[in-house]
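Instructor's aside before we start: the two examples that follow are unrelated to each other. I chose them only because their records fit on one page, so don't look for a connection. First example below.
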Amino acid sequence: MSPERASHSYFLLLSLGAAILSFPAAVDIKSKNHGLCTVCGAGEPCSRNGLAVHMYLCNASMHNKAFYNSDGDFLIVPQQGSLNLTTEFGKIYVDPNEICVVPQGIRFSVDVAGPSRGYILEIYNGHFQLPNLGPIGANGLANPRDFLTPVASFEDRTVAEGYSIVSKFQGALFSATQEHSPFDVVAWHGNYVPFKYNLANFLVINSVSFDHIDPSIFTVLTCPSQKPGVAVADFVIFPPRWTVQQHTFRPPYYHRNCMSEFMGLIYGRYEAKEEGFLPGGASLHSMMTPHGPDAAAFSKASTDKLQATRVADGTMAFMFESSFSMAVTRWAEETCGRLDHTYYKAWQPLTSHFNHEWKPESKKQDGKDSVVVTGSRLSDQEAQTAQGSYSF
């Protein structure tokens, strides 16, 4: 890490609409340092208001070094390579398709067995919590019983050459040296603690009649804002599931919304963009920027027979969604060199299917007339411009 990479200056930068970043399928790191690069964010840590999205790369363990974040909580999403975290509360082993949350101020060190990379969502307001289930009831989505906390573990170790403690404070990094390991806590109690969760344990809720439901039904964790019903950040996943809706365009429909959507892919192929969106890559759709399935996904969904179908088998995509308008860092826009400047072309083949002479057909059902819609689905021409959308 370097102060430049971890700075909170992103809120001063130009905000892009829609973009995608595409990274190679394998990690290729020539240095032995740990890398944490900020992709986008909003707000800043001094006022404890906002969030940041980072991508991490590392191929070396933290030897006699620990890190803690004074600015907020980390939600860590490994994409390649497992992470073996040593914390003040004990050890946590996190594989891809699992997540780990390290709350503000907790010291931790990371060991890796080889090249590793993933995503980090950092929040400055409050902490992550389970979403309100409302009428779902007691069970559903991410169940509390599936979250794991570490068992107390300690090491009584003196380090003659010095043990380095790195702090992220107000977006910059500071380092101090002490003579012993910080992981000398022999017991703990309470609930301010790091934890992990296996995404395979998510209990999916979905429509069994018609319509595409908002992705909030896939929320694993949320950080609510002071405005009821509005989140600083939601962590949402798109796991393997059945889709059975009738008279429905089943993929995410073309839309604009009041949230910023940062998407990542842990493995597999995302249903709304099966080509070009690679594991380890990311996309950002800024608020009120039109977006939706690419032309290939639209064509397939418009002609598929509407029968019970498995979706996203062998795939795990996720989204960091926020009510903040996130700006993109110079690292993401320029330095990393992985910005896909042709992302908007995914929508250009879309054509209008509107027919002003089309009329619904009527048929008798139980002695009554009912309207049956049999015409072609409409495409959103605004999606062709896609300005303000990014793909990485």
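Example two begins here.
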Amino acid sequence: IILSLQLISVFSSSCSSSNFLKSRSKAFCKHPLKLRGGQQDEASGDVTPSGSYHGNYIAPQGEQPKASTTVEVKSPPSTAEAPTAAAPLASATSKSSKLANLQERTGPAVLMLGATFLLLKYTGEKGLIGLILLMQLGLYSEATGVVEAFQAKKGSSIDKIKSYPVQKWWWFMTAMIYSGRDLIMQHTSLTGDQMNIINFCMSAASLVGCVISLAMLSGPGTEDLYREYLGKLSCCHFSLLFLVGQSSFWIKTVQEYGLGWVLFPAFLVIVNDTMAYVFGVLMGKHKLIPKLSPKKTVEGFVGAGLSTVAIASPLVKFCIGGDIPNLGRHAIILAVYASLVSPFGGFLASAVKRAHGAKDFGALIPGHGGVVDRFDCQVVTAPFVYLYLKNFYNVES
């Protein structure tokens, strides 16, 4: 429709211009003309260099040059109605695209849940702990990789610090040994004091190594390289704190409270994320945080929260079971946290991706992105669940 109206407008403009030129040509024929560069003699046809050209027309002899004539071409009145006609089509296309994306996400999600179920059925708590350790590796690798890829596009000079890759994974090992100290002590003869000494020595070695790496740099642009290195250092340590540190509470929860109290909050977050997407597709009109996560809507956030709280009580009976006092109340409290606070882990991840020009943190899971994309909300829930159970669930049980 818009293309047709534009063609009509162009045709009308050309017709107006054509009529204007025809009227001008009739006026010129009544007088001797001053041609560009001279005056033409009617009898001999000779041209004398006394003429002048005045932009839009040739002035007849004896006539003062007039101001340039401007032709105003008005657009057809129906053009303003084109966006209104196109709006329903754009809305329908957007909804069909969202539904197609939902179908693409459903298959891998079902496969992930099925694989996790089989793993836990045959390996139990040990299998879950092993899965968490692999997830922590993926979380750290993807989060730091997004920043490194962005700086590489800008022309990174971090390659001058040859020890950076070693330092990056040294920090990861230091954090993993600290967060998994209970596991290490269970399977070795090391004591808590010995683990403290090992962690302290590894931290001190990383500090000395960082300073020596910076001191060995020289030449022009050293200050810029300092900033780039310290930026990556901050990224690595924030990834360790926010992703690896918080996810380590899953291990403590499964060891002290059992497998069910890890699965139940995880299902709450999955339900909340899924229902936020469904309500956003079907009813979403108002953006929640458009600058950080343009696809999130107020309707999706509210609908997901109500759905998560509604399913909490039957879901906790399925995951935990048994005759536990106030089990439904505990379930609702965890559901409220999973609805109101956990989504902000996803908002923060969206801000990181937007700041570094990345669509996803990885491509491990089709339709979902990487490990961080799938567990950014889950890691925010893990420490709250453990601390809540330790301070409230233990007292009543």
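The radius of gyration is 35 Å.
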